[in-house]
Specification:
The protein is mainly beta and 105 residues long. The chain contains 1 helix and 6 strands; from the N terminus they run αββββββ. The chain has one helix at 15-19, and strands at residues 27-38, 46-54, 57-61, 71-76, 79-89, 92-97.
C-alpha cells in the first residue's frame, strides 16, 4: 500500500522485483568451482570461488578484501573475457561479461 519513491517521484522497486530482471537464467554453484580475475594492472590473477553464474555474468567470492578496477578480465582456463565489476558487498563481487555473452560457459 505504501510504496517508496525517489525524489523524482518514481517508485523504488522492491528487492524481489530487481532479482526478476535478469537477462539469463542463474545457476547456483555455491563455491564448488573457481574462476580467476585479472585486474589488468600488473598484479597476479586472483582465484575466486564461483558462487553463481549465467551467460551474462557471475557472482564471485574474493579470497580477501582487495581493491579492483571497474574493468577486469575473467579467466577461464587459457581464455580471457572482458568483464566489469557491477556491484560489490565486502568480498563478494558481481561481474558482467561485456563481450561474447554466449561463449563464456
Amino acid at each position: 500500500m505504501f510504496d517508496c519513491y525517489n525524489p523524482s517521484m518514481q517508485r523504488i522497486p522492491h528487492m524481489t522485483e530487481l532479482a526478476d530482471r535478469r537477462d539469463a537464467p542463474l545457476t547456483d554453484l555455491d563455491g564448488r568451482y573457481s574462476m580467476r580475475l585479472d585486474p589488468c594492472d600488473g598484479r597476479e590473477s586472483i582465484d575466486c570461488a564461483l558462487l553463481d553464474y549465467s551467460v551474462t555474468g557471475a557472482r564471485l567470492q574474493l579470497p580477501e578484501d582487495v581493491e579492483l578496477p571497474a574493468a577486469v578480465h575473467v579467466l577461464v582456463g587459457r581464455l580471457a573475457h572482458n568483464a566489469r565489476i557491477v556491484w560489490r558487498k565486502g568480498t563478494t563481487v558481481g561481474v558482467d561479461f561485456i563481450d561474447e555473452h554466449h561463449s563464456i560457459f
